[in-house]
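Thread: Modeling a multi-component assembly for a lab meeting

Hi all, long-time lurker, first post. My supervisor asked me to bring a structural picture of a complex we are working on to next week's group meeting, and I have zero experience with this. I have the sequence lines for every component (228 residues in total). Could someone generate the structure of the whole assembly? Inputs are pasted exactly as I received them:
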Amino acid sequence: DAGVIQSPRHEVTEMGQEVTLRCKPISGHNSLFWYRQTMMRGLELLIYFNNNVPIDDSGMPEDRFSAKMPNASFSTLKIQPSEPRDSAVYFCASNPGLAGSNTGELFFGEGSRLTVL
Amino acid sequence: ELKVEQNPLFLSMQEGKNYTIYCNYSTTSDRLYWYRQDPGKSLESLFVLLSNGAVKQEGRLMASLDTKARLSTLHITAAVHDLSATYFCAVVFDNNNDMRFGAGTRLTVKP
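Re: Modeling a multi-component assembly
Sure thing. I ran the full set together rather than chain by chain. Output:
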């Protein structure tokens, strides 16, 4: 069974450009998470969705960041305009939620490494 | 404020030695997770601890949870080089699906 799929794996862009990161969660998982990882700040939760609905976006750094989940199998994280301080690895993760016997553990994608020059 | 604190942040061990990584968290939770991350790779789930007193073991790693002390430990027995990685603990607060991570412990096992 395929895991969480992220694209692109690597992106290099110039300051001011729009960046779109994509994620396909594991089929049947109804919760999706976006995390950002940097050396200075570690793993930060940006936003998470339950059943395609954003539940908590308090971790989104500022208005330049937006995330959508138009259906159960696809999510995007957009940065517009991008800045050098946005350089990081962005991870998408999913889980089946906490209902029933689900343990709540997250299944991570391989990450998208973003470099903004 | 939701806080998850790990210590040590860096750990260099000799092969064959034992050591413990600690994870403290700030508010009530009965769901704690340990993940492993190899350099340049994704995070892999190691242990899920869902109740006070829970203990899980896999190979040379053993994790435990004390919800009253808000403390989890990850014990390494007779370390081997293959265990070199960064280990994260993570906590779900307020019984929702919001998982917060510690800063990670970078473990290096030397021959």
